[in-house]
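Good morning,

Both structures are done.
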Amino acid sequence: MKYVKVEVNGMGVEMIFDTGASNTLISIAEARYLYEKGQLTADDILGKSSSRVASGDIVQNTVVRLREVVIGGRLRCENVIATVSDNVGAPLLLGNEVLNRAAAFTIDNERKVVRFMLRS
């Protein structure tokens, strides 16, 4: 797995770089923290969605708007639609909803680095 350093509404986290995930995913723990700090408001809660997890089960999730996601201090994405997992231990996933906003990215497996190119 490749991890990238990300700021979500000002909170620094490491997320799994997941080209197989259509959406960005945070756990309920991060969502609660952001809410308590005023970085996620009632206006940012957009509703519910259903998704199929690896076990094949269908689960209900909350959908939120993350006002700002910054990758590596360079790639700034506003109004990111993300899924909140009710599982406190869920891995944080950086999905294609964000990855597609970069002009391109390269993966250096030897150095374990992901490089993002900005759109001009």
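Second structure follows.
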Amino acid sequence: MDAQFSNNELHKVDNEDYRSITSIVYLLQAIAIFTALPFFIAVIINYIKKGDVKGTLSESHFQWQIRTFWYSLFWGIIGAILVFVLVGYAILFINYIWVIYRIIKGWLRLSSGQAMYI
């Protein structure tokens, strides 16, 4: 006998699955603090699953994660270029702290069931 779920129960299961994927992306971003490859894997997951999370709590988190990736990549490149004039070290450090802040902020809001403000 197959279990039958109401629409609300199915929606809840979907949201839990999406929250798990969103949490995995935050984990990959956190690991990326030490090595860059997981950051790229995380954003690929974001883009692949972006359509699936439309209209859910995870949608705002995906936007937050994608923006974190692109801005950190931009400032990382600028910082790397400017390392030769020493100001690049400050840019890289600030970028590093900013990424950590965004990961923590997003993960805390996800765990408390809150959407990200965009």
